[in-house]
Amino acid sequence: MIALTGATGQLGRLVIEHLLRMQVNPSSIVAIVRNPAKAHDLAATGITVRQASYDDGNALTAALKDVRRLLLISSSELGQRTAQHAHIISAATHAGTPEIIYTSLLHADSSPLNLAEEHLATEALIAASGLAFTILRNGWYTENYTASIPSALAHGALVGSAGDGRIASAARTDYAEAAALVLARQEPLTGTTHELAGDDDFTLTQFAAEISRQSGKPISYHNLPEADYRAILLSAGLPEPLAAGLASWDVGASQGALFDNHRQLSHLIGRPTTPLADSAKATLTQLP
Do 227 and 280 lie in a common domain? Predict the structure, then answer.
């Protein structure tokens, strides 16, 4: 039995899609979810759905019964991640689950992003747990940027604080395929850490130019001070913690936090990562 947390989330669903595409028997997959009502489609394929939140140690231990390998998809609750992940790691040890895979952050041990602290703490907990493990340090999803295409088209501009920082992002499905492959492989986990990023990199100026090329509309990138970018995000209705986070992460990108050129992701999945142009096209074709 293999299992994953966050199975109804965006990454979790893609991991399951890849597992099924790889002909993994659905009956050997355990989807751990907070709300089983959102997992009816997964259960319909023969996947075992078990309910447990990241905060409920007893439920997590029960959910991991007979599980050989767990994919811990990091929690989305910033500031709560370390404690929540500790519950899951403890549950795995109590349930007798011998192996764990964790979705961490690109270059977590040197990243200037404030996200790194909780990821590093989780990595340390896993290393100290005695479980066999693999760490997947994921870079940024290209979808983090393509989500801004409608706004850029509406205003004729893309704004941010990333300067000329180079961003080696990949599509979410690329990272999901990597996780599925590690989750399903037969070889034991050996404490490996993978730094995962896209094959190609771009600046936000180049991203704006790509939107212009495909849409036929002039889009320019305007680099702003962090405080100004945060103010724009707040005016757009984002909550303060998210607006502050997005602005600070852009500044981190300007410092190289989202760049890596070692192509470990494409090596792991055995194909090139999804080009930026393809991700932009997919978003543009879905617009009214």
Answer: yes
